[in-house]
Specification:
The protein is of the alpha+beta class. The chain contains five helices and five strands. Strands 1-2-3-4-5 form a five-stranded mixed sheet.
Length: 158
């Protein structure tokens, strides 16, 4: 079941986000090395949760919760650009301990419906091209995202 966010959901979805991003942060640390990684992500155990918290505090209306049998099993945050008429899916995750299938698709469909109801013409989502983001890429493709542009970020030690 997809429902609107409530302030009491915050600690739970912060925890889900922090746990869901462990593998991604592990890959970033391997890729960047300890020094650069620690500059980019000062506290990997809480960084994603803090991003989620900032979004929820600023735009609680742009957060959906996925609940199964009374338990929160996922969340999705998003934004609306009324000028360009593009809605963007931001931080989203399924609880890593939840083995139910289809949670992401439920959340994305609810967001797509919200986007349409608010006059958006396109939906947008960003993700990495690395192995840690492969499950997200598959989920977005299953949800119908079919226009993409590949990007790369370089760093150089000075």
């Amino acid at each position: 079941m997809i429902r609107a966010y409530k302030p009491e959901d915050l600690p739970i979805i912060m925890d889900i986000g922090n746990r869901a991003w462990r593998e991604i942060y592990r890959m970033f640390r391997e890729t960047y090395g300890d020094e650069l990684f620690s500059l980019l992500v000062p506290n990997e155990k809480t960084a994603k949760g803090e991003q989620i918290k900032a979004h929820c505090e600023k735009h609680p209306e742009w957060v959906f919760i996925c609940e199964e049998k009374g338990k929160i099993v996922g969340f999705v945050t998003f934004t609306l650009d009324y000028e360009k008429r593009i809605g963007e899916i931001r931080n989203n995750a399924r609880d890593p301990d939840c083995k139910l299938k289809g949670i992401g698709q439920q959340m994305y469909q609810a967001v797509f419906d919200y986007f349409r109801a608010h006059g958006m013409l396109y939906a947008k989502v960003g993700t990495g091209l690395d192995y840690a983001h492969a499950p997200a890429r598959r989920a977005y493709e299953r949800a119908g995202f079919n226009i993409h542009h590949e990007d790369i970020t370089y760093y150089k030690k000075l």
